[in-house]
Design a protein that fits this description.
It is a single chain. This protein is an alpha/beta fold. It folds into two domains: 2-41 and 166-366, no CATH class; 48-151, Periplasmic binding protein-like II (D-Maltodextrin-Binding Protein, domain 2, 3-Layer(aba) Sandwich). It is built from 17 helices and six strands. It has helices at 2-14, 17-38, 41-44, 62-68, 84-93, 115-140, 142-151, 172-184, 187-195, 203-210, 215-243, 252-274, 281-298, 304-313, 315-320, 322-335, 340-366, and strands spanning 50-56, 70-71, 74-75, 77-81, 98-102, 106-109. β2 and β3 (74-75) form a beta hairpin. α8 (172-184) runs antiparallel to α16 and α9 packs parallel to α12. It starts with a helix and ends in a 6-residue tail after the last helix.
């Protein structure tokens, strides 16, 4: 019985072009569009050297600091020594972003606000705060201050270590959410299975109602086919993203695992929506499309910061949103050293799946028809 239902359900499913489109082709198309949209993002975020001028009326150690500061072996500042008149002309011409007047007090001059000006001011503020701290310490405890000065301040120290899993890229959250969307849209398979057991929705449903077999014996092999096909779709989606150059880090097996597991959750969600006997198939499809997109949106697919807003403002919503659990699992693989958060999300998805399966089985067993 199981093999018979499995075989014919599998053949019918491969002919359902609409379902295959939503489960595989649509996420792949979005992945391609995302890749085009974000292809120049890394280049835009590459740090560029800030051009500043220095008007030196007095000797000051700040100029040596500005000359020596580097990030990834690139100079942060390109310093030009100018007179105040020359500095003003260069600033108006846009050749420098700002200039620093070294006198009794440091004075930063600029004619606009922007990234370069903000970085420059931040560096100067930190320098002045550190200098004030050392001066106060010299007055209160000269010996301790001398020890600190002898140890020196290591300007070359990297306080942010590059993750071994790859370059940190916040745009990865969008691709994570796209995997989640593909997983939730696997619900179209589960919905199709439930619709085919409904005598008022399809010819297959009429056959299932009148045959002398329990519905679970028909639904179980059908859901197994759905899981198999959706798992293949999720594996192909992740593989396609890899071909596009998306970096998922070194734990690829776990990336595929959470994608497949998420697809199972999506199938169960679709089956749950398909239980409604008062809605036709088109309305159910529309509901699942809206639910899937909303889940992906809340997990950061469209606006990356939405994910963080939900987690900080409504953490309970993040915990019951399967799309967020999928993206959070991938996020944990990429950014965290331990697997605790990954396994926690996986277990949570498992519990959601079990609860929904129990609900589905109860409603399917109680479904009866006066006539077909």
């Amino acid at each position: 019985m199981f093999y018979h239902v499995f075989k014919y359900r599998f053949k019918r499913l491969l002919r359902e072009k609409t379902l295959l489109f939503w489960a595989l082709l649509f996420p792949c198309i979005l992945a391609t569009l995302f890749n085009f949209a974000f292809s120049n993002f890394d280049e835009m975020m590459v740090f560029r050297t800030i051009r500043i001028g220095i008007v030196e009326n007095k000797e000051h150690e700040i100029k040596y600091l500005l000359e020596d500061l580097e990030v990834e072996e690139r100079e942060i500042f390109s310093v030009q020594y100018l007179s105040e008149e020359e500095a003003e002309e260069e600033l108006l011409a846009g050749s420098i972003s700002s200039y620093l007047v070294i006198d009794e007090k440091l004075k930063l001059v600029t004619d606009r606000s922007g990234y370069d000006q903000t970085i420059t001011k931040h560096v100067l503020d930190n320098f002045l705060q550190a200098s004030a701290t050392i001066n106060n310490l010299m007055q209160r405890d000269p010996q301790k201050a001398n020890e600190i000065l002898l140890e020196g301040i290591n300007l070359d120290k990297e306080f942010v270590e590059r993750d071994l899993q790859g370059d940190n890229n916040i745009m990865l959250v969008s691709f994570y959410s796209l995997i989640a969307l593909g997983a939730i849209y696997g619900g179209f398979f589960g919905m199709k299975t439930i619709n085919e057991t409904e005598g008022n929705l399809s010819a297959y449903g009429i056959k299932h109602v009148i045959v002398p077999f329990h519905k679970i014996k028909i639904i179980f092999p059908s859901i197994t086919v759905d899981v198999f096909v959706q798992s293949m779709a999720m594996i192909l989606l992740v593989s396609y993203m890899l071909l596009l150059g998306i970096d998922f880090g070194d734990y690829l097996f776990f990336v595929y695992l959470v994608a497949v597991f998420g697809g199972v959750v999506g199938i169960v969600i679709g089956a749950l929506i398909g239980l409604s006997s008062r809605l036709d198939a088109v309305k159910k499809d529309n509901i699942l499309s809206a639910v899937g997109f909303m889940m992906a949106f809340l997990s950061g697919m469209v606006i990356v910061n939405v994910k963080h807003w939900v987690q900080s403002g409504a953490p309970w919503l993040a915990q019951i949103n399967p799309a967020n659990l999928i993206t959070d699992s991938l996020y944990a693989l990429y950014y965290y050293e331990t697997m605790d958060r990954y396994y926690y999300n996986l277990i949570t998805m498992g519990l959601i799946t079990i609860v929904l399966l129990i609900v589905i089985s109860v409603f399917v067993r109680r479904r009866q028809y006066d006539s077909v």
